[in-house]
Amino acid sequence: MWAVGLGPCAGQTKAPVVDIRNDARNAVANELPTPNSNSAAGAASNEDSAAENELLEAANKSRELAGVPPLRVDESLRLAARAHARRMVAADRLEHQLPGEPGLLERIAQVISPDIKSPGSRAQDSPAQDALKIDRAGENIATATCALGANDALMRSAPHRQNLLDRSFNVVGIATIWSKGRLYVVQDFAHELPSYSAEQSRKLIGRSVDDVRQQAGLPELEQLTPPHLDEAACKLAKEDRPNVHLLAAAYSNRKIVAYTESRPETLPSGALRLVRDPSVRQFAVGSCYARNAAYPTGMYWVAILLY
């Protein structure tokens, strides 16, 4: 594995000094020297896109040498990182969550889906198909006197290095803002999920059902398309968990499975047991990607009826 070597920022005669925090809020802090940056932003209190590009390039070079796929910049994550960086600058504090500020997932959710503003907000049904879908996230924050100095310190800290080289993270948003001679850095990482329409989800789940039946030596089931089943799956998201009782009244005399999954084609154990039932002849699938307080960045909500 490779890390950017610790060296002075351009124009400095001693190594850059940084303050970094991980998710456990451990810190490495030192007194800051007078900055002498080669950035066009200098010591002005503004955003530095060149520094953001430097940090992305350094991260992806480290990932390449570690045999890890590169990170892709996502605009939603960049906006979330920038909003947090501005808050830290305004508060003159390095924290993952400032007073009155939501946690990381909620901050990202507010950018992805402005309708979700607090844990008590309603679920959003059927969001835009191109909206970012993620199932986990991580964050690095730091202050330094140059971008590469921040990257070097982050790579030398085990928790931050883990975020930077995490194979499951595939998207990132980076924000850098100068204030009082310090470069505030926020890196928001996430694992982006495949984006499926309800129809695509139904097909994927149907193939999983077919595979289970085939492996069990059972005949293939006929897939039905009853009306409003996708809408019924969306209504499940208004609860903190999938509730089959919400479906039972509308779809009586059916075996019902309801679940949430980041990959809808992954059938839970309860579904596997019912799908393997030799008496079952038909099935139907309803699917909806929705966000609620339990899943602020969203999840696939699935309902399967077995006849």
Q: Beta-strand percentage?
A: 15-25%
Number of DSSP strands? 11
Largest sheet: 6 strands, mixed
Class from secondary-structure proportions: alpha+beta
Low-confidence stretches: 1-8, 10-19, 23-45, 116-122
One letter per element, helices H and strands E, the order comes to: EEHEHHEEHHEEHEHHEHEE
Radius of gyration, taken over Cα atoms and rounded to an integer in Å: 24 Å
What count of helical segments does DSSP give?
A: 9
Q: End-to-end distance, in Å?
A: 54 Å
Strand order of the largest sheet: 2-1-5-7-6-3
The chain-level mean pLDDT equals: 83
Helix percent band: 25-40%
Structural commentary:
The chain has 307 residues and is of the alpha+beta class. The protein has helices at residues 49-65, 75-91, 104-112, 147-156, 158-165, 198-215, 229-236, 245-248, 269-275, and strands spanning 19-21, 27-28, 72-73, 124-125, 134-144, 171-179, 182-192, 222-224, 255-261, 282-291, 299-306. The strands form two sheets. It has a six-stranded mixed sheet, with helices on both faces. Strands 4, 8, 9, 10 and 11 form a five-stranded mixed sheet that branches. Strand 1 and strand 2 form a beta hairpin. The longest helix has 18 residues, at 198-215. The relative contact order is 0.17. Mean pLDDT is 83; it is low at 1-8, 10-19, 23-45 and 116-122.
